[in-house]
Design goal:
There is one protein chain. The chain is of the alpha/beta class and 402 residues long. 41% of the residues lie in helices and 13% in strands. The protein has 14 helices and 12 strands. The protein has helices at residues 4-20, 50-61, 83-92, 109-119, 156-162, 173-188, 193-203, 209-212, 216-235, 240-254, 263-270, 274-286, 314-320, 326-338; strands at 39-44, 68-72, 97-101, 124-129, 147-151, 290-293, 308-311, 344-345, 352-354, 358-363, 378-382, 392-394. The strands form 3 sheets. It has a 5-stranded parallel β-sheet with strand order 2-3-4-1-5. The protein has a 5-stranded mixed β-sheet with strand order 8-9-10-11-12. Strand 8 and strand 9 (352-354) form a beta hairpin. The longest helix has 20 residues, at 216-235.
């Protein structure tokens, strides 16, 4: 059972963190969450701002901070404490909302959340966890009780907003295709989008760009290592030697992306079986380290061999490799931004097929329609141009979709 002095220690740490958080900018997901739901899950990879979002909610909605409690399950305190005991103490002492960060560090987390939800009738619970969390396969049936959201990395639009450079609402893909010239002209009248886009591609995908400064890429590399060494084992039953193979596989891929994988070759280089390598590829995609693309949209979810492999975002390319290929950089950005809310496959002609309708060829300002001239609903996504026309669209504008 939780003791009063233990609770005060948790509460003190929570008060300190809330006081330091800023309400100036909020992630795109913040206003879409139904905060009144009794059980809310927020998944996302490390560094995307899940913790900040929880603390912002408390700071904005609770004048009396004692009516809520934030706890982080990766804290050493929870080597001795039970999440259920904390919830029980909180509920019996008048707390209305319990915010549980990094729930994947809790053994049988699904079962514990279900028990808390069912036992403490009007306690509101908001939890965060790794993007790898198997929500649908939790040990307890939470599907009828909760609403689950996914927090992604910064879009280019969010990067400009958080850097206090330019404010623009997100738009749909159809709106972008029809209005890109006007959007680009309005933006170019206020900022130099190409220079800012270059900065984003290198160091703009994660909120900690605001504080990390010159250490950003080093911090990102460290974070990616922790995803493999700490986050994956918390969610998956995986041995230490296999984790070492995962780290080796990531570094091999980083120097070769985009890669049309030869699984036999990867097996030899990593020192693992075919099943192991394919499993690691899919685990690293769920963990936010890779993007797996297929000729059939979503077919890769069956744990089959992907047709092409990319790192998850452009910042990771800079963090893991000394030299970055410009063409790969452009394709990685486009795929990362579109796959958040669209299906993306690899077509017979062009680079990407979106929603089984739109074909895109991605390239520099000199790219022509030659490869997709006979493809209906086809477009060029072009880097190094500020303003496009017709079916030629500036690449950076695809960063305004969320």
């Amino acid at each position: 059972m939780l003791q009063e002095d233990q609770f005060r220690q948790l509460q003190s740490a929570y008060f300190s963190r809330v006081q330091r958080v800023s309400l100036t900018h909020k992630r795109y997901l913040y206003d879409t969450i139904n905060w009144q739901s009794r059980l809310i899950g927020i998944r996302g990879s490390r560094g995307t701002g899940k913790t900040t979002m929880l603390l912002q909610y408390v700071k904005e909605h609770y004048a009396d901070l004692t009516k809520a409690l934030y706890v982080s399950m990766d804290s050493l305190n929870f080597r001795l404490l039970s999440l259920y005991d904390v919830a029980e103490y909180a509920y019996t002492h008048g707390i209305e909302t319990l915010l549980v960060d990094e729930v994947h560090y809790v053994e049988q987390w699904g079962r514990q959340l279900k028990e808390i939800f069912d036992t403490f009738g009007d306690l509101r619970i908001v939890y965060t966890g790794s993007s790898m969390l198997k929500i649908d396969e939790a040990e307890a049936d939470l599907s009828r009780r909760q609403t689950v959201y996914e927090l992604r990395c910064f879009s280019f639009r969010e990067y400009l907003l958080f850097m206090d450079v330019y404010r623009q609402d997100a738009c749909s893909l159809d709106y972008l295709l029809a209005n890109h010239t006007r959007m680009a002209m309005e933006m170019s009248a206020h900022i130099k989008p190409l220079a800012l886009f270059e900065s984003y591609l290198k160091t703009g995908c994660y909120p900690f760009v605001m504080e990390a400064g010159q250490d950003y890429l080093m911090r990102l590399e460290r974070m990616m290592s922790l995803v493999i060494s700490q986050d994956i084992p918390q969610v998956e039953d995986i041995t230490f030697p296999t984790l070492q193979k995962a780290q080796k596989l990531l570094m091999i891929l980083a120097t070769q992306v985009p890669l049309e994988p030869n699984i036999s070759t990867l097996c030899r280089e990593v020192g693992g079986t075919r099943d192991m390598v394919i499993r690691l590829l899919h685990l690293m995609e769920k963990a936010g380290l890779l993007m797996l693309a297929s000729r059939q949209a979503n077919s890769y979810k069956t744990l089959s061999r992907p047709d092409k492999i990319y790192l998850n975002n452009t910042n990771q390319m800079y963090a893991l490799t000394g030299g970055v290929n410009k063409g790969t950089l452009r394709e990685t950005f486009f795929l990362n931004q579109l796959r958040q809310s669209h299906t993306v496959a690899l077509p017979a002609k062009g680079d990407f097929l979106v929603d089984d309708r739109y074909t895109f060829e991605v390239g520099g300002a000199g790219k022509t329609y030659r490869q997709i001239s006979d493809v209906p609903d086809s477009f060029l996504a072009l880097d190094d141009i500020e303003i496009g026309s017709g079916n030629a669209i500036p690449l950076y504008l695809f960063g305004f979709l969320y």
